[in-house]
Structures are given as structure tokens and as C-alpha cells.
Design goal:
With 104 residues, this protein is an all-alpha fold. Helix content is 98%, strand content 0%.
Length: 104
């Protein structure tokens, strides 16, 4: 009977060892899969971030071009108004000088 007890103990130890080995192997496989999934998520997030940054830069460039165009138009209008004022004063100055020369 004592041999049966030792046999049962050995079988229980072997079953426990197998269960432990299987659990270790499963744990390693799950860890490897989790790392792989994590890296895939990181890569996806990086791609999405790059796309979003590219879109934001394009939008900012477009907005900057619009502001620059509006500023240039405003500057052109101011230049035209100033030029017209200068030309008017130039005509007045010419008339004044001619009048002074002619009238002495």
C-alpha cells in the first residue's frame, strides 16, 4: 500500500509540473501577443498622429495664405489711396509753383 501512496504522490507531482509548464508556456505566448498588439497600437497611433499633424499644417498654411492675401489686398488699397492723395497734392504743388512763377 505504501507503494501506491508514493505512486499517487509522484503522479500528483508530475501533473502539477505539467500544469505549471503549460501555464508558463501560455503566459509567455500571451505576453508575446500582448507586446505585439501593443506595438501595433503604438504604430497605428503614430500614423494617425502624423496624418493629423499633416492636416493641421496644411490647414494652418491655408489660413496663413488667406491672411497674407487679405493683408496684401489691404496694403494695396492703402497704397492706392496714398498714391492718389500724393498725386492730388503734387498737382496742387505744381499749380502753386506755376502760379508763383507766372504771377511773380
Amino acid at each position: 500500500m505504501s507503494l501506491d501512496i508514493f505512486k499517487d504522490i509522484n503522479e500528483a507531482e508530475e501533473t502539477a509540473r505539467k500544469a505549471k509548464n503549460e501555464a508558463t508556456a501560455l503566459s509567455k505566448r500571451e505576453l508575446t501577443q500582448a507586446e505585439s498588439d501593443g506595438m501595433a497600437l503604438i504604430e497605428k497611433a503614430e500614423r494617425e498622429a502624423e496624418e493629423e499633424v499633416s492636416k493641421m499644417l496644411a490647414d494652418a498654411k491655408k489660413a496663413g495664405e488667406k491672411i497674407a492675401f487679405e493683408a496684401a489686398g489691404s496694403t494695396e488699397n492703402k497704397r492706392a489711396v496714398t498714391k492718389a492723395g500724393v498725386e492730388k497734392r503734387l498737382d496742387q504743388a505744381v499749380d502753386y509753383i506755376v502760379g508763383r512763377i507766372v504771377n511773380g
